[in-house]
Write a structure and sequence with these properties.
The chain contains 14 helices and 36 strands. By secondary structure, it is α+β, with helices and mostly antiparallel strands.
Length: 784
């Protein structure tokens, strides 16, 4: 017993004399029992920090003079110093009342360069690597950077890229770092196969997924790039396609990407099982929450018995009911759809059950993966924030909104348990994609400016702030010029209020007229959503118009003599537009309605005083799903009345070759003499159009070529512009009646990498002798 006591005393004596020593290499500590409980030092001595500086070392310690500390504090200090990346070795020891911190500084990176990269520019690579000039040289971080570079190349289709490094010592602990890149050949997609599809052809399904076969334009579109995330996105696109067309039992058995090293190409194969097609059976709403009347919620349901089953319609019904219940003061109420399959009749009855869900709050919204887009741009798409009641339908809606922005190649929202059972962490994983574009457009105006060219630079996510900006410039053969600047802030002052401006300037110097025309316009606008589908826009419109003579004014009709002699003119107005949009796709809509109605009042200064009311609506419907034949019908109308009865020429409506194809811009309606330059416009117009588009059978659907057949009809009539000035009379107005014009034609549409291009040939079948016709129309497709 005494021998044991002598042994313990000896150990204690050794411990007291050893004090405390901590080494980063092995992290060994020797601490006396007394010191571990209440060790105190009076000063800190830093050794070896010649570049970093002693103060920087002290700031990363958890130990301070005059305060007690333990082994845990020493361990934390060593770890914290290593985490800075500036030290390759750290040792901490206690000598009397002094804490001695000895560090060995890591090498510093003087410069980071990229060699051998041609397909991915330096600025793109610099954005994905974490090693920086003036930062520490860290081998683990450099290996992570190599992997990031490979992933950046894989996104362009070069998954065989090789990356090595070269390190050039410069002395005094500084090095230059070079990433040496062997890009290799770009991988391609040889074919995309579907197995098990009976209801829809492989061609139709290939138009659903984002991955496309390689063609001669793939180097621009990059849609033939394979990666696993993109493959999973294609799987989800197929599921939604089938779920929204009645195939509730659809499943993907397997998806395979086979790589052929000899050709450097992938072959994708989707093995699917469609299952039967269902219609909606009986649809009802039930509520177990006191105070919530199920009968009042029935009108919010978008699913109807007898309709083809659609998962998207079920989801929209869930969101509508959930919003109504939450706004009624039940934030924790939960809406759950219950499906009742009738296999004999192939129907699915839906019961929407409203019950009291668990009380759960959003602890935080965690955003990951956004290298460019700011966090607040993502957060503002959520109708809830930290501390609010958790609502799954709001999560679904936020995901849909984020995907619709076009800023991200993928959006995934998941939930994790929070710090307590009633707390939920919302995790948003996104991947930024390119949002800038450079466009070139062309058109032809017969008898006017001839060939027209326009170039534009557009950025939909300016500086990662979600702002839209576009700069454009163009010109024509006859000396015409255009300049434009458009800007939109989608969330003004943090509200869902899109505020922006449009500034445009154009000059026309046409040999077909005896005057030159110059126009400068500015628009201030603000758009506010009313519902998910309905929005309103308020605008202030300012336009200055200058007419300069280039020939004899005696050759002009009296209204145009008035324009030239009294130039310049100013039009100042305010307008309000209601827009209703239920389109399933803004690029190639197959189902839905796009409609707008505008009222405008002019007279806030300027030379115009009138009230205008005009609008347009277009309805799309898929006529044959597998053949992808899309039908659409549209109509438009407008009426203007002057406050002082008379109107200016530029106050009246004119129709373009996009309103009624087969006729020139300003080619129909009231006019004084021949030619579009003597057009007066009209006070009233109506147009209708019917069109069907279809994939061209001789081309792969991946190429994006579609044909069109159409028929247009309309009229423009009524004139309130004086046709005599200063007592000069005798001019005769033609076309001042509601005579109908009509045309039929064919079109060719190409969804090119430069935008959707369209060529139409239209033949007027009903026209007047004085109308100005134009058979061909070429330009950027604008259906709305």
């Amino acid at each position: 017993m005494k021998a044991g006591s002598r042994f313990l005393n000896a150990v204690s004596a050794v411990a007291l004399s050893a004090g405390i020593v901590a080494s980063g290499a092995g992290a060994t500590f020797f601490v006396s029992a007394t010191a571990a409980e209440a060790a105190v030092i009076q000063r800190i001595d830093v050794r070896g920090a010649s570049r970093v500086g002693a103060e920087a070392v002290r700031s990363n310690l958890t130990i301070e003079p005059g305060q007690s500390f333990s082994n845990t504090d020493i361990d934390d200090s060593v770890k914290q110093l290593y985490d800075t990346g500036y030290f390759s070795d750290v040792k901490i020891a206690v000598s009397g009342g002094t804490l001695v911190v000895t560090v060995q500084e890591a090498q510093l990176v003087n410069q980071v360069v990229f060699n051998g990269n041609r397909k991915v520019k330096d600025d793109k690579l610099a954005a994905v690597v974490k090693t920086r000039a003036a930062g520490p040289y860290n081998e683990a971080q450099i290996q992570a950077d190599i992997q990031s570079i490979k992933e950046a190349y894989a996104a362009t289709g070069r998954s065989e890229v090789e990356v090595t490094t070269q390190v050039v010592p410069l002395g005094e602990g500084r090095v230059n770092l070079a990433f040496v890149i062997n890009e290799g050949d770009r991988t391609k997609i040889a074919s995309i196969n579907f197995v098990g599809n009976n209801a829809y052809s492989s061609g139709r399904l290939s138009s659903v997924i984002n991955t496309k076969r390689t063609n001669f334009l793939s180097f621009l579109t990059r849609k033939d790039v394979y990666n696993e995330d993109k493959l999973h996105g294609d799987e989800e696109a197929l599921r939604q396609f089938y779920y929204n067309r009645g195939y509730a039992d659809f499943r993907i058995i397997s998806s395979d990407a086979a790589f052929d090293e000899a050709t450097n190409k992938y072959t994708l194969t989707f093995n699917i099982e469609e299952g039967p097609r269902y219609d909606f059976g009986a649809v009802s709403v039930q509520s177990t929450v006191p105070g919530v009347d199920a009968a009042q919620l029935q009108g919010l349901v978008r699913t109807r018995e007898g309709q083809v089953y659609s998962a998207s319609q079920v989801q929209k019904s869930l969101e509508a009911i959930s919003d109504q219940v939450a706004s009624a003061g039940y934030p924790f109420a939960r809406v759950t759809p219950r499906g009742n399959r009738d296999l004999g009749n192939n129907t699915i009855g839906i019961e929407y059950l409203v019950d009291q869900g668990e009380r759960a709050y959003v602890e935080r919204i965690e955003i990951r993966g956004n290298s460019r887009t700011r966090d607040f741009v993502i957060r503002r798409e959520f109708d809830m924030s930290e501390g609010d009641a958790f609502n799954q339908q709001m999560i679904t809606r936020a995901k849909r909104r984020l995907e619709a922005l076009g800023y991200f190649s993928s959006v995934n929202i998941t939930t994790q348990p929070g710090s307590s059972p009633d707390r939920v962490v919302v995790v948003v994983d996104v991947q930024d994609q390119s949002t800038g574009s450079f466009g070139i457009g062309a058109g032809y105006a017969a008898g006017g400016d001839g060939l027209l060219l326009e170039a534009s630079i557009e950025e939909k996510n300016f500086l990662g702030r979600g702002q839209y900006i576009k700069v454009s410039a163009g010109g024509g053969e006859e000396g015409s010029r255009t300049l434009g600047l458009n800007f939109t802030e989608p969330y003004f002052l943090g509200y869902r209020l899109a505020v922006g401006f449009d500034i445009n300037h154009s000059e026309t110097s046409s040999t077909s007229a005896d005057y030159e025309y110059e126009e400068t316009s500015a628009v201030l606008r603000a758009t506010a959503p009313i519902t998910e589908d309905l929005a309103t826009t308020f605008r202030y419109n300012y336009k200055q118009m200058k007419y300069d003579p280039s020939g004899s004014l005696s050759d002009l009709s009296s209204p145009y003599q008035n324009l030239v002699e009294n130039s310049p003119w100013v039009k100042s107005s305010v307008s309000q537009t209601l827009t209703y949009n239920t389109l399933d796709d803004m690029t190639l809509p197959r189902e839905g309605i796009y409609a707008s109605a505008t009222q405008e009042v002019a007279g806030i200064g300027g030379d115009s005083q009138f009230y205008k009311l005009y609008g347009k609506a277009r309805y799309y419907h898929l006529l044959a799903d597998d053949a992808d034949i899309i039908g659409s019908v549209s109509g438009s109308a407008g009426y203007v009345i002057g406050f002082n009865k008379d109107l200016n020429v530029f106050d009246q409506f004119t129709l373009t070759n996009g309103d009624i194809r087969g006729f020139e811009n300003r080619g129909i309606g009231p006019r004084v003499g021949g030619g579009p330059d003597n057009s007066l416009g009209g006070t009233t117009y109506f147009t209708v159009s019917a069109e069907a588009t279809f994939p061209l059978p001789a081309f792969p659907r991946d190429f994006g070529l579609r044909g069109a057949v159409f028929a247009d009809a309309g009229t423009l009539f009524g004139n309130k512009v004086p046709v005599n000035v200063n007592g000069v009379t005798g001019e005769f107005v033609e076309g001042d009646d509601a005579t109908l014009r009509a045309s039929v034609g064919l079109g060719l549409i190409w969804a090119s990498p430069f935008g959707t291009l369209r060529v139409d040939y239209a033949f007027p079948v009903v026209k007047e002798d004085f109308d100005q016709t134009q058979h061909f129309k070429f330009g950027i497709n604008n259906q709305f």
